[in-house]
Automatic annotation (TrEMBL):
This is Phosphoglucomutase. It comes from Kaistia dalseonensis. GO terms for molecular function: phosphoglucomutase activity. The lineage of its organism: Bacteria, Pseudomonadati, Pseudomonadota, Alphaproteobacteria, Hyphomicrobiales. It is an enzyme of class 5 (isomerase). Belongs to the phosphohexose mutase family.
Length: 551
């Protein structure tokens, strides 16, 4: 984004007048009835589940009742008979949605595991619980539901289904669940089974569960916690008021690490946040505006990190570099893990999404390892992480996970907690902070200039862009260099990328439609200069404009 688009409130405390009115939000959740004839009020599963605001009739009681009943039907159809691990984050709507979901799950007799203290559960903890339960089993497998809109503003809610592989559900699963849920909405919820909440909580199939102890006890299997302790690395941790908030003190106590939780406040208005680039509140740990308070503490700690609200993303702050670009930390992590995980198979590959930095390609090639490039969405990494063919999977949006130290699966969903702890391990074992590790690992690989911008696109144009044939791309050059590849499918698994990618030797761009706004996203990178990046972005918009005209 250009400086002209940055709101004057960005990086500053949010005025009380702009905070979400939580009583009014909760009233909207129960009072507003979605109209399934209006597209924006229907159930719509994106890459991270169904999301929306109760104020817009996009995330209301009817949605959650319908989706949960659809999940129950899907479980029956798929023969899933084990427990369902259910967790929520700290968004106000998450609490209400958990109540609605329990009413339906209890009425359907689904064995459901909820936090024993009525607390919050990070996305990766749900994945870890599913995989731990299913290990060694071939039947009676578990699955899960995560109630979270990730880092989205305080008035939004989110609802995501994770099947038996522990990762985000594939499009065939979410498509089936979404259709069934919309059918229930259209039928005014006829066919949805439901118990009053007080009875549902007492149902024999609803079980209190200790999520914290198994996850925290297992951390040493994936991160070298002893190295962090023995090196006395000073670690700063900011949960950004999210679901990880009650996980850090047990971890600090168990492993005796020198870590400080800089903010343990849970507040559904998220009034402690600084405003994001557009003046809104987002718990986006990759945003320098949302991360301004932790960045200001960069010299207080040897390394610091934050997680978003469901703790599946990470933001790394170092004394030498401040807030790291997510792509840079992914590259540094791969370089470090390759050198410090002797029990991993040398045949295991490293995964990235189609819009992640080309610096990752260069680092992996330098290490002599295999790269797997997939479409956007962490679900594409799940199978490889389960069978060990992938050692690491990472997204440019600051989400990643990797194998246990013995080479077995840890999670199949993004895990911001272990990525933060990896930054501390990296600092402990190398004596350098992650920014310095990145600089060292890429010193001979050039400099990356990477950015994402948005450009206007109508609904029809976005639909065309999502399904474009790359043979229609007429560009022979990109910012003065010959085009070497035109892609509509990911090289790593031959799946559609939902857009296009054009590659030259020292730069590339990818264009994908936004799922929520009338824009398309241009991801671009240059290995020459900032000016070269601007030329790539300009060429990208020209290419897409010609494609819109031609189609």
């Amino acid at each position: 984004m250009s400086e002209a688009t940055v709101n004057s409130l960005a990086g500053k405390p949010v005025p009380r007048s702009l905070l979400a009115n939580i009583p009014r939000l909760m009233t909207a959740y129960f009072a507003f009835k979605p109209d399934p004839a209006i597209a924006t009020q229907r159930v719509a599963f994106g890459t991270s589940g169904h999301r929306g605001s109760a104020f817009a009739a996009a995330f209301n009681e009817a949605h959650i009742l319908a989706i949960t009943q659809a999940v129950c039907l899907y479980r029956r159809k798929a023969g899933i008979t084990g427990p369902l691990f259910l967790g929520m984050d700290t968004h106000a709507l998450s609490e209400a949605a958990l109540t609605s979901a329990i009413e339906v799950l209890a009425a359907n007799g689904v064995e459901t595991m909820i936090d024993e203290h009525g607390g919050y559960t990070p996305t990766p903890v749900i994945s870890h619980a599913i995989l731990t339960y299913n290990r060694g089993r071939t039947e009676g497998l578990a699955d899960g539901i995560v109630i979270s809109p990730s880092h989205n503003p305080p008035d939004e809610g989110g609802f995501k289904y994770n099947p038996t592989n522990g990762g985000p559900a594939d499009v065939d699963v979410t498509g089936w669940i979404g259709k069934a849920a919309n059918d229930f909405l259209a039928a005014n919820l006829e066919g949805v089974l439901r118990l009053p909440y007080a009875r549902a909580r007492k149902a024999a199939c609803i079980h209190p569960y200790d999520y914290i102890t198994p996850y925290v006890s297992d951390l040493a299997q994936v991160v070298d916690m002893e190295a962090i302790r023995s090196a006395s690395v000073r670690v700063g941790i900011d949960p950004l008021g999210g679901a990880a908030v009650r996980y850090w003190e047990p971890a600090i106590e168990r492993y005796k690490i020198d870590a400080t939780v800089v903010n343990d406040v849970v507040d559904p208005t998220f009034s402690f946040m600084t405003a994001d680039w557009d003046g809104k509140i987002r718990m986006d740990c990759s945003s320098p505006y949302a991360m301004a308070p932790l960045i200001a503490m960069r010299d207080t700690f040897d390394v610091a990190f934050a997680n978003d609200t469901d703790a599946d993303r990470h933001g790394i702050v170092t004394p030498s570099g401040g807030l790291m670009n997510p792509n840079a930390f992914l590259a540094a992590s791969i370089a470090y893990l390759c050198a410090n995980r002797p029990d991993w198979s040398p045949e295991s590959a490293f995964g990235k999404t189609i819009v992640s930095s080309g610096m990752i390609d260069r680092v992996v090639a330098k290490l002599g390892r295999k790269l797997v490039e997939v479409p956007v969405g962490f679900k594409w990494f799940s199978k490889g992480l389960v069978d060990g063919s992938l050692a690491f999977g990472g997204e440019e949006s600051a989400g990643a996970s990797f194998l246990r130290r013995d080479g077995s699966v840890w999670t199949t969903d993004k895990d911001g907690l272990i990525m933060g702890l990896l930054a501390a391990e990296m600092t402990a074992r190398t004596g350098k902070d992650p920014s310095q590790v990145y600089a060292e690992a890429t010193a001979d690989l050039g400099q990356s200039f990477y950015a994402r911008i948005d450009a206007p696109a109508s609904v029809e144009q976005k639909a065309r862009l999502a399904k474009l044939d790359p043979s229609l791309i007429d560009a022979e050059e990109l910012a003065g260099e010959p085009v070497v590849a035109r892609l509509a499918r990911a090289p790593g698994n031959d799946e559609p990328i939902g857009g296009i990618k054009v590659v030259a030797s020292n730069g590339w761009f990818a264009a994908r439609p936004s799922g929520t706004e009338e824009v398309y996203k241009i991801y671009a990178e240059s290995f020459r200069s900032a000016e070269h990046l601007k030329q790539i972005q300009s060429d990208a918009q020209a290419v897409v404009s010609r494609l819109f005209e031609a189609t």
